[in-house]
Write a structure and sequence with these properties.
By secondary structure, the protein is α+β, with helices and mostly antiparallel strands. Helix 1 runs antiparallel to helix 2. Helix content is about 15%, strand content about 35%. Strand 11 and strand 12 form a beta hairpin. The strands form 7 sheets. The chain has a 4-stranded antiparallel sheet with strand order 1-28-27-26. The chain has a 4-stranded antiparallel sheet with strand order 2-3-4-5. It has a 4-stranded antiparallel sheet with strand order 6-7-8-9, with no helix packed on it. The radius of gyration is 24 Å and the shape is globular. The N and C termini lie far apart (about 60 Å).
Length: about 425
């Protein structure tokens, strides 16, 4: 209680310093509005103290800049979005509107899900036709760099050796809804409407069928693998979230049934530090769980004003959660204060969103990406200040159902009901 009171006093002092600095710098109208808003009493005199405090703080930060190894579960500033350290960080990643389609692969049915390997070197796509494709990123880039004349002269042997699709997997009997690469082994994990989770050892060139499988009690909607590779979260049409030990296939659920969702689970994801995981549901709630005790530690009720929450992913430092909902809004939630920090608006202005889709960060977390359903274009915002960037036309002839950005470079995969998955990449100026 004492720490809470102290924080309130510190914030009141901060607001008074801001008001005094505004008066000092000649922004009387803004200072008066802020003073009325925070009910500053007694009145704040003009003062330059805040500028001096900031200068002193910046000098201390510069002196400590050599100490980059921050211990524990935190991530050093500059490795992703971190609003505690900097809100005006320079954008180091390329403009998303400049990405180009480098490769297109087609399924025999609507393409519903895509996922990158942690290395960024492989990407997998899953379809309503129950098939899965694994593609080599370097081969896709090499293919896109060749002229049509060179491609036309390739022999059958060369086409086979250089083909970007390195595996096509057939072992599901219904739509593939989710995909995840194992972090340490050459294993792809898939979930499907056929009530199963399957494990494919894709290192074997002849592989077509799964080496292991889990039979679920409901259609599998979403899954996420623990950073160690030992545990798997599975969300299904049933409201109860499952946690599996991958080595034994033993299933765990939260001990308190009241902590579970009341609707279909639409998204699950582990935090990068593996201490937490998040779940989203058709019931409109967002839940944060302790990764060790398997207990719900926070629930954001009606996170999208009661609309279905479609996606939820952690930032790289595990401090924030990025969500999207059927209200076509994208939101950034801060875990330490349990509140929505930023709302990214502007998508969905041409019509109501009918299908689930995902909001994702780009590889540097400088941008937030979200496909607009009606226009089949990609909305993009500055992740720190929510400034709208230029739109990117995704070139699909139907709804974009999934988008996944590479964790390591300027590329992403878009999956659409037009049966196609498009691989996008920002080519360097010298390419």
């Amino acid at each position: 209680m004492g720490d809470s009171n102290l924080e309130i006093k510190d914030r009141e002092g901060l607001y008074r310093l801001i008001i005094s600095q505004l008066f000092y710098d000649g922004y009387q109208a803004i200072a008066v509005n802020l003073s009325n808003g925070v009910k500053a009493h007694p009145a704040c005199p003009p003062s330059d103290k805040l500028l001096h405090v900031v200068r002193m703080g910046l000098h201390v930060m510069e002196d400590q800049s050599g100490l980059q190894n921050i211990k524990g579960d935190t991530v050093a500033p500059g490795t992703g979005i971190d609003l505690e350290f900097e809100t005006d960080a320079p954008t180091i990643s390329p403009d998303v509107s400049l990405y180009e389609t480098c490769y297109v692969t087609a399924h025999k049915g609507p393409c519903r899900t895509g996922a990158f390997h942690q290395s960024g070197k492989l990407v997998a796509t899953g379809s309503d036709d129950a098939s899965i494709k694994i593609l080599d990123v370097d081969r896709m880039l090499a293919k896109s760099a060749l002229s049509p004349e060179v491609l036309a002269q390739e022999t059958t042997q060369q086409i086979m050796e250089n083909h970007p699709v390195i595996r096509t997997l057939y072992d599901h009997t219904d739509e593939v809804t989710s995909l995840a690469f194992h972090p340490t082994y050459s294993v792809l994990i898939s979930g499907s409407r056929d009530y199963s989770v399957k494990f494919f050892e894709y290192s074997k060139s002849s592989v077509k069928k799964a080496c292991k499988s889990i039979q679920e009690a409901a259609e599998v909607r979403t899954l996420s693998v623990h950073a160690s590779g030992d545990f798997l979260l599975v969300g299904t049409q049933h409201p109860t979230l499952r946690l599996y030990d991958i080595n034994t296939f033993q299933c765990f659920v939260a001990s308190d049934p009241s902590q579970q969702h009341t609707g279909v689970i639409t998204a699950v994801n582990w935090s990068p530090n593996a201490n937490l995981y998040v779940s989203a549901s058709k019931d409109g709630d967002l839940k944060v769980w302790d990764g060790v005790s398997n207990k719900c530690i926070n629930t954001f009720r009606k996170a999208h004003e009661g609309h279905e929450v479609c996606s939820a992913v952690f930032s790289r430092n595990s401090k924030y959660i990025l969500t999207s909902g059927k209200d076509s809004l994208v939101k950034l939630w801060e875990l330490s204060t349990a509140r929505c920090l930023i709302a990214y608006t502007g998508a969905g202005t041409t019509g109501k969103q009918e299908h689930r889709s995902q909001a994702v960060f780009n590889h540097t977390e400088d941008y937030v990406l979200f496909p607009d359903e009606k226009t089949t274009s990609l909305c993009c915002w500055d992740s720190r200040n929510a400034d709208r960037q230029r739109l990117l036309s995704l070139g699909h002839n139907n709804v974009v159902r999934s988008i996944s950005h590479s964790p390591t470079g300027p590329s992403f995969i878009s999956c659409s009901d037009d049966f196609r998955a498009r691989f996008w990449y920002r080519k360097a100026a010298l390419d």
